[in-house]
């Protein structure tokens, strides 16, 4: 049995052009010819990132595989140039830092303090910032003035803020003087290890709350007011409206600011360094300031160990960010 096909009405069969390649390299070549102006526009950014980020990162990773110090690195003394004499030692630096005989004193104790410092600071940033954002989101007289005053700690340069707190936390500073007038104990904020850590959290909280407040305030203002009206009409209490309307509405903003807060606090070099210096308060040093101390605050300067700390810091943050994003995606899918 034969079926007649009307060749005049049948759609033409699409045929792949002969001799045209469809591989990834061919598509990239065609795209570069078609959108050459886009590649020209992003080329300066790629070059700058390569020079400022990619090369130092690659160079730092290479140093972690050597025993480079200030004694065996290339240096110039007067008119004499001394070539480097450090050697390739593989993963010895990583093994020594993580599992060496003094691994706890050199790495794990600072790692635990860095994690505790990060959790405490970010939790205080978020809770205080959310409380202030809820307050400023109300119709208050002088709300603009309050907002400007609360943003002021964020606008002041970090070194000015930290030095001001350092003066106030000194033995004869303002804080201990007030505590003395109130017949309260006067802690050694800058000498005792426990109080050094409390002081570091206090100063970093003062510096970080304004950013969290502004971000969460923007999130609060983006929540539809009709949701609150509907919840109130259904008899929801203030706590129920906060739990079931405010917090879910702030979830996208909260996820972003918490992630940024963790990354910034984990690598917060300025607060610790300016408050205690690079060589004092060894038990209050976080990982990033301890890496600086190894590379620049002692003699001989251990460039390899310092670079290894930097790579470990980057690895920790990459792993945390990956699991954090996956957890957020699962939470969002479970609520749908």
Automatic annotation (TrEMBL):
Q: Which residues form a coiled coil?
A: none
One Pfam family this sequence matches: BPD_transp_1
Q: Which InterPro entries does its entry note?
A: MetI-like, MetI-like_sf, UgpAE/MalFG_permease
Q: Where is the composition biased (Low complexity)?
A: 11-24
Compartments reported by the entry: Cell membrane
Record's bilayer topology term: Multi-pass membrane protein
Keywords assigned by UniProt, alphabetized: Cell membrane, Membrane, Transmembrane, Transmembrane helix, Transport
Name of the protein described by the UniProt record: Sugar ABC transporter permease
All copies of domain ABC transmembrane type-1, residue ranges: 111-324
